[in-house]
Amino acid sequence: MSGKDIVSYDGVHCANCTAAMQGEFCHHCGQSIHTVLKPVHHMFEDTLETFLHVDGRVLHTLPPLMTRPGFLTLEYFSGRRQRYVPPFRLMFVLCLLAFFLTHIAVDSLADHGKSGTPSAQVDRHTFDKFDTPEQVQQALDKRLAELNQAKAQIGNVAGVDTDTSKAEKKLRKQADARIAEIEAEQAKTPAAGASAGAPAAAAASAARADDDNDFKDMNDALSPARVHVSWLPEFMNTRLAHSAANLRANLKGMSSSNREEHDQAVERMKAGIFGVLPQTMFVLMPAFALLLKLFYLFKRRLYMEHLIVALHSHAFLFAVLLLWVALAMVKAWVAPHAAWAGSLLGWLEFALAIWAPVYLLLMQKRIYRQGWPMTVIKYLMVGWCYFWLLGFALGGAFLMGVAH
């Protein structure tokens, strides 16, 4: 070490507790010797240094997280932690990034579907302005031709076949209902009214009822006045009633023939679902650690050790989800222009899907150091229990999201 690198702290005392300083940080209270009252350009220098330091830790953390099962956890147990991102911070950031990108991907795919297949958007009152069966049939043929043309223009984009098939069924159903209405109106004569008008009117009424009353019973059941649990506190009943009212409004918006109301309801529900997913995963983290504690009870490990295993496992899964969604977005953009590139990206997605369970199995084997038969059995049992926990948690998150 050169002479200019040696710093003397003789006679320097901590400004907070007056202890004699032996370095840049007080050994008694931990306060830094450096003052926060400094020029602005020094603040920018400190911020840049902090960012580069964190970036260096990320570079040391992410590659082994993705390629070396159990390595980060064993490093953490052995006390070598300084060069790596802490487990909770790693899991937290990757969780937020994964769900954020997934939300963007869902929105972009929905927008692509709307812009790519405009004729697949079916209005409930498409045929109401026509007065004869021939006009209705002509309009139906025209709309079906537009659907086929849009499908041919989009090509092999995922989801187009399903959307156009649904739109075609809706159009045919609405056309049949309108023709039945017209025939019922034409049959309203003194002689034929009782015989011919009744069946046609009944068919038209039944077809209309399918579109207009899908959510009627559900809306009535979820009326805020009916949501009251006697053993719950009043504030929780109020909250439940409010959520039920939101759910009713969202379902009503979903069934609305007004495209703007429908889209607003969908956006509210998507925002609600993606808003509660991170909190849901945070709740599952200690539950997963508890499962590990129960299945490895005789290993005499602390619960905190199992929690660190859970944090690193979920950090890896969120990283996989992040990469998988990114590949799916790139594939959706590239595939219509270069089929070979789309096929390559598809194989990468498949490799990620295979690597995830294999990684978790190897991680469990290396950390708990049991034989392969017992490791596989416990891996399958933990996975089975966690699958049901995850299903219930995601179901609850979905209900909370749609009631947003």
Layout of strands and helices, then pairs:
Layout: H1 40-67, H2 71-78, H3 87-116, H4 133-154, H5 160-186, H6 193-212, H7 216-221, H8 234-254, H9 259-295, H10 303-334, H11 339-368, H12 372-402
Helix pairs in contact: 3-9, 3-10, 4-5, 5-6, 8-9, 9-10, 9-12, 10-11, 11-12
Describe the overall structure.
The two termini are 61 Å apart. Helix 4 packs antiparallel against helix 5 and helix 5 runs antiparallel to helix 6. The chain is built from twelve helices and no strands. The radius of gyration is 31 Å and the shape is elongated. Among the domains are: 58 residues, no CATH class; 170 residues, no CATH class; 40 residues. With 404 residues, the protein is mainly alpha-helical. The chain is 72% helix and 0% strand.
What is the percent of helical residues?
over 70%
Strand content: under 5%
**Helical region count?**
12
> Average pLDDT, to the nearest integer?
79
- Report the structural category: mainly alpha
Low-pLDDT parts are: 1-6, 115-120, 191-196
Q: Element order, helices and strands?
A: HHHHHHHHHHHH
| Terminus-to-terminus distance | 61 Å
How many DSSP E strands?
Answer: 0
Summarize the biggest pleated sheet: none
Radius of gyration: 31 Å
Approximate shape: elongated
Regarding quaternary structure, how should these chains be classified?
single chain
Keywords:
12 helices, elongated, disordered N terminus, mainly alpha, 404 residues
Summarize the structure.
By secondary structure, the protein is mainly alpha-helical. Among the domains are: 3-60, no CATH class; 79-104 and 259-402, no CATH class; 215-254. The protein has twelve helices and no strands.
